[in-house]
Amino acid sequence: MKVVFSLLPLSLGLLLQCSFAHAQDRKIEQAIKHRKAAFTLMATYVNRMVQTVDGHRPFDAKQMTQDSRTVELLSKLPWEGFVEGSERGDTRAKDDIWFEEDKFKRYANELQVKSAGVTAAAESGDLKRFKAALGQMRDACNACHKAFRKD
């Protein structure tokens, strides 16, 4: 009987440790899902804008303004999903993100600045200006992808 009572605290301790580890894994999994969802939505709206500048859709300044505002908002969301431990799991992020955090943050900021530029260009109603701004934003995306995304 004494053996059972002496093993009880050990068993409870192991059980609690397992539940904390499981909760941490869920947190990491949710962080990865969060950033992937933000990037997926952003890609959807960017693709619509790209189709427009490529001539596959008519240029509608009002619609492009709405789409660019959505991208501008979305450009602020994925970064909170890059939490410690989320380098493992179902992710296309390179480990370098966590080793070159300042560089990664600069790329994130550049995307936000360039996406605001796309919104301003869309609001102007000038297709040439919109196309140039969208190109700059896409260059910012591609630079980060080249540095930090597994392909």
Can you describe what's shown?
The protein is an all-alpha fold. Helix content is 77%, strand content 0%. The chain is built from 5 helices and no strands. Helix 1 runs antiparallel to helix 2 (61-74), helix 1 packs antiparallel against helix 5 (127-148) and helix 4 (101-124) packs antiparallel against helix 5. The longest helix is centred in the first third of the chain and has 52 residues, at 2-53. Residues 18-22 have low confidence and may be disordered.
What share of residues are in beta strands? under 5%
**Secondary-structure class:** mainly alpha
Q: Could you estimate the helical fraction of the residues in percent?
A: over 70%
Bulk shape: elongated
How many distinct helices?
5
Tally the beta strands: 0
Report mean pLDDT, rounded to a whole number: 88
* Main sheet attributes: strand count, strand direction, barrel closure: none
Q: What is the chain-wise order of helices and strands?
A: HHHHH
Mind telling me the C-alpha Rg?
A: 22 Å
| End-to-end separation | 58 Å
Question: Which blocks of ≥5 consecutive residues have pLDDT under 50?
Answer: 18-22
What would a concise description of this structure say?
By secondary structure, the protein is mainly alpha-helical.
Describe the structure using short key phrases.
single chain; 151 residues; mainly alpha; 5 helices; 77% helix
Reconstruct the topology from this structure.
Elements: H1 2-53, H2 61-74, H3 96-99, H4 101-124, H5 127-148
Helix pairs in contact: 1-2, 1-5, 2-4, 4-5
